[in-house]
Amino acid sequence: MDDHNCLQLNEDPIQFVPASVSKTTNVFYDEITGQIITVHSGELTEIIVTSSTRCRENMVFKIEDRGPVSSIKMSLDCKILTMMRTALSVELMEIKENTLQSPYFLYCKFKGAKLLGFIWTGNNEILLISDKGVELYQVEGHVPKQRIIFSKSINLHVNWFIYSNHSKLLLLSMNSFGDFQPLHILPGNINKLTKLEVDLDTSLNIPNQSISERNIVMTTTYNILRILVLPTSQSRNEIIVYTLNKMMSFKKSHILKLTHNGKLLINVVDNLIVVHYQHTKSSSVFDIYMEAAKEHTISHYLPILDDLSIKRTIPREGGSHYVSHLYSSICISFQPNIIIDAKLGYLWRFKLNLAAVSRIIMDKCSLIDFLLLRSKSKDTTLEVLQNMILQKTSNLIEIGNVFDHLNIVYKKHLNNHIMNTGPLSNDYMIVAESLQCKVVIEQLDVYKHVFVKLVDKLENNKDDDDDKKFTVSILVEYIRSLTDNKITIEHFLYELLINCLVINKMYYQLHQMVQYHIVIDSKPLACLLLSLESLYSPAHQMALDMLHRLNTAHEEIVEVLLSKKQVIPSMRYMAKHNMLDHSTYRKLTEVAISTDNSKILHSTREEFVQRNVTSNDELDTSSRR
Amino acid sequence: MPTEVTVQNFYIFNSTLSKTEDDGAKKILFYYPEHEDENKKVLNVGHIEAVICFARNFNANEPCESLRTEKTLQVLYNAEPDFWIVITVSAECKFKQNSSESPDEHVYCTYNLQEPIYLAILKHWYYTFQMTVGNMTELMNDNDPDYLRLMLNKFYSKYLQSTDVSSHTFMDMFQGISFLPLDNVIHLYAQSFLNIIENTFQQAPVRAGLVWRATESGLNKHQTQLVYSYILMWVLPEIAKKDHLVKGNLVQQCLPNQLVGRFITNVWAVKTDSWISDLGKVPILWLNDENDKIFKSYRLVMYKAHHSIVCMFIKMGNPLTADLYNTLDQFLGTKLYLLSEKMKNTIEKTLTSKLYTERPAKFVYFNAMNLAIKNSIKYSNAISTINRPSEFNLSPDALRVLVDISSQQSCMHPTYSVMIKTSNDNWVAGRLCNSREIYIVLNQKLTKLYDVDSEIQSLCAQEFGTIFFYD
C-alpha cells in the first residue's frame, strides 16, 4: 500500500457478485442495513444478499420471475425481504429458515399515486413514498397471520426523496426549484419540519434550473446532520452546506469552494467532507470546523487538501494487477465513506492516512487544528510535535503558536471535565457543545513525548549551548501558553524548567521566574531550590520566601534556619508561631552549643527559662556538657 | 548644617610603571584636575603610595581603603594588581557668617564624608570602565601605557564631568535595579519575546535584554546591573532629547520601514562601532560569561518602541548590515510595541489597585541577591520621570546615619536590627534578614521603642508580605 496517499481504501474490500455478470443482473445497495443485494433476473430470479459489515454470511434466495425489480431491501432485523416491482405496491416476503415465504402486498393508500420508493424506518415500520405523499405502516405478526397497520400519512406532492437513517430524517423534493420538505420520522409518527428553500446563487438568472437527486447529499459530520447542495450546471462551482440546528430547521452554514468542474462524488471520512472530481480524477478534502473567512456569517472554505488521487490496484488471477478507476462513472459513493464499483463487484471504505496528511499540510498550526479534530490522531499529533521540536524543523514563534492551539483545546477539555464532575453551569454547557475536538494533548503527553526526549538529547551532547537555550525557550513558551489559557501547570513541568535553567547556569533567569511567580510555590519546589544553594547562593533566599508564602511550612522554615545555625532568628520565628516547647528545646540547645557562641547559648537558655518551658534539671545537664 | 563637598582630585596610578625617582610622572595613568602642577601630581601620588606601603605592615591581605585628614578624605580602590584608583574629597561647612571669624577662614567637616559612598562610586566606575573599555592590565599589556592613559582619559573625564560626586548619598551605594511590578503572564510574555528574538536571529544577537525602566534580561545579575546603569545614564536622557527632534534624519531615510519603533544610535561610549558610516554608531561593550572570566566584546544594539527598549548584544564577529537592521526592525516593531503596551497596562492596573496609605515613614529596600531596589517614592512618579534618588528628601543627617547602619550591617550576618533616635527626635532604623536590607526613616516623634518596632513591623508586613523577612 502506498503510504504517501492521504486517502486510502481499505485493504480488504467486500466482494460481491458484480453487475457485469450479465445484462439482467442488477446490484442494489441499502445504506440503512449496509447490504448489497444482487438480483439476477431470469426465469428463476436469484437474489444474493451480501453484508458490507461482514456480520452475516451471504444469503441466497431464488424466486420466480415476476417482472423487473426496481428496488429491493431487507427489513432492519433481516427477517423480511421487501421489493418493489411496480409503482403501485411493495411486496413483502418473510424469511424463514433461509427460504422466502409467499409474498404479501402493501398498496399505496392515495388514489392514483405512483410509488417512488419505500424505507424501513424501524424494526417493523415501513414508510411508503409516492408522488402524492408519504404513508407510515407497522407490520406485525407473521405469515399467514400478518397484519399491516396504518399509522400516519402526509399528503403532499413529492418529486423524489432522500433519507438519513442516522437522524431519521426524510427530505422530500416538492418541486424542481429547490423547495424541500424535511420530515422527522418517529416511531408511529411523522413530524413536519420547517421547509427548506435551497437558493442556488445563479448569476445568469436562468429560471428553470432544476435540482435533482444527484445534487443533494445528506450526511452527518461532527454529529450534526447536513445537507450538501452540489452545484448544477448553471450555478456557481461551490457546495452549499445546510446544517440542522437545534430548532430542527436547516440553515445555510458553510460554502465549500470547489476547485474543479464536472461530476462529483461525496464521501465523509472522519468528519471531513471528501469531494471526488470524476473529470480530473482527483479529490479535495474540506473540514468545516477549521477556521475560514466569513461572508455574511457564512464561512467560505477552500479545500484543506487538494488534488489528492486515490489509486487502488486489485490483484487479479495470474499475478497481474488491474488499476481500478475509482473516478469512473461506474463507481458510486454512499455515505459516509463507501465507494462501490458495481462492475467489478467491490465495496471499499475510505480511510484517512494521518501520517501522510501531516507531511502535506505545511502550516503547523492548521495541521494541529486539523489533527485535533480527527479521532485517533493523538499519536500523529505528538509525532508532529516531536518532529517540530526535536528535529528543529520549526522556529520558536511557530512552536509557540502550536502550543496555543493545543492548549485552547486542552482548556476546553478541562472545563468540560469540571462540568462533568461539578455542578452543572450554563456557561460550561456552551463550551461543552462547542467542543468538537476528539483529541486532547495534555501536559503529561507533552512532557513524556517531547520534553523528556529533549532533555535526554541534551544530556547526550552537552556541548551545544544553543540547544540548551532552545530547550529552556521551548519550556518557557509552553508554560507561557498554559498560563495564557489559565491552565494550572503541573509540578513536573516546573521541576524540569528549574533543572534546565540550572543545567544552563541561567540562575538569574531562574531568580526572576520565582520572583514573578511564574513558578507556583510548593514545598517540593522549595526543597529543590534549597538543594541548589551550593550552585547559586540566592536560591536559599528564594526557598525561604517560597516556604513563607505557603504559610503552612513553619517547621520547614525552622529547619532551614537551624541548618544555617541561625538559632536566634529561628527562635524568634518559633516564638511567633507558638512552636517553642519541650520538644524543640533540646534541638535548639544543641544547635546553640554547636555554634560555640556563648551569647547565643545564653540567649537560648534565657528564652526557655523565661517561658518556663524547661525544668532546671535539664538546664543543668546541658550546661555540664 | 549644610556641607559643601568638592572633589579635590582623582587619579589612577600604577607604581610599577616608574622605576626611578626621576620618572615619577610615568606611573600616573589619569589625573584630575588635568592642569594641576606636574610636581604636585607626583607628590600626591607618592604620598598615597607611602600610605599604602605603611598600611601594608599591619595587614598585608587587605589593602588600605581610606585616609582621613583634617581637610580631606581620600578613598582608595585597588582595582587590579598594582592599579590604584584614588579620589580625594573635602567638605566645608557653611556657617552663617559669624562676625568674629574672618570670611576667609574655612571650617572643615570631613567627619561628614563617609567612605562607603565614595568606595561604591569608585567601584561602580571601575566596573563600568571594564564593561565599556576593558580590563586595565590587559589594555596595558596588549598595547602600551599611553593607550591605557588615552582610554582612561576618555572615560573618566566624561564620568567626572557628568556625575556630581558631591550629590552622591546613601541612595547611590546600591546601584540597584527597580523591577517592574509585573504579573506572571506579562513576565512570561516578555521572556518568550526575548527567547524568540534570540532564536530568530541566531546568527546575530546572542543575548537580548529588555528595558522598561527596569529589566527582564538574559544577562547575569552584575551585567544587568551595569548595563542598566549605563542605559539610565546615557541612553534615557538621549531619548528624551531625540523625541523632540524633527523626523527625517539619516537613519530614517535608510530604514524607511521604521514606523513603529526605532534604533537608538549615537549614544556616548568610549568605544563605538558603526555599520554604515553615517547611520549612527553603536556602543561596544565587554561582557563575561557567568562561568568563565573571559571578556568578550559585543555590539550593543538598542531598539525602542512605545516605552520599551530592547538591548541586543551582537558578537563582534557578526557584521552589522542594513539588512539585519531592516529585518530586526520589521521583526521587533509591532511585537515590542504591543508587549510594552501590555506591560504599561498591567503596571497601571497594579498601581491603581494598590492603595497607598500615606505613612510618615520612608524606606529603602535592597536585596543583594538579585540587586532589586525599592523605595517609598511613589511609583507613579517613578514612571513619569527618572527620579534621582536625591529627591528622596531625607535630611543629610539621616542619610549619614543610614550609611553608618549599612556599613555596620554588612559585617553582622545573618540578622540584624537597629533603631536610632536622631537629634530631632526622629527614628532611623535598619534591618537585615535573609540577605535583604531595609532602611527606614520615621518622621514621627515616638517615645517608646515598642511603638517604633511595631510601626516598622506593620510597614514590613504591608510592603513585603510575600517574602521571608523579619518575622
UniProtKB/TrEMBL annotation, chain A:
Q: Where is the Mic1 domain?
A: 374-618
Q: Which organism is it from?
A: Aphis craccivora
Q: Which top-rank group of organisms is this from?
A: Eukaryota
Start and end of every Regulator of MON1-CCZ1 complex N-terminal domain? 27-140
Q: Which PANTHER family match?
A: COLON CANCER-ASSOCIATED PROTEIN MIC1, REGULATOR OF MON1-CCZ1 COMPLEX
Q: Which GO terms describe its cellular component?
A: late endosome membrane; lysosomal membrane; Mon1-Ccz1 complex
| Lineage start | Eukaryota, Metazoa, Ecdysozoa, Arthropoda, Hexapoda
**GO BP terms in the entry:** regulation of autophagy
Record protein name field? Regulator of MON1-CCZ1 complex isoform X1
TrEMBL record, chain B:
Location of the CCZ1/INTU second Longin domain: 217-333
| Cellular component GO terms, alphabetical | Mon1-Ccz1 complex
**GO BP, sorted A to Z:** vesicle-mediated transport
Q: Where is the CCZ1/INTU/HSP4 first Longin domain?
A: 7-134
- Residue ranges annotated for the CCZ1/INTU/HPS4 third Longin domain, each copy included: 357-458
- Protein family according to the UniProt entry: Belongs to the CCZ1 family.
> What name is this protein filed under?
Vacuolar fusion protein CCZ1
Q: Which organism is it from?
A: Aphis craccivora
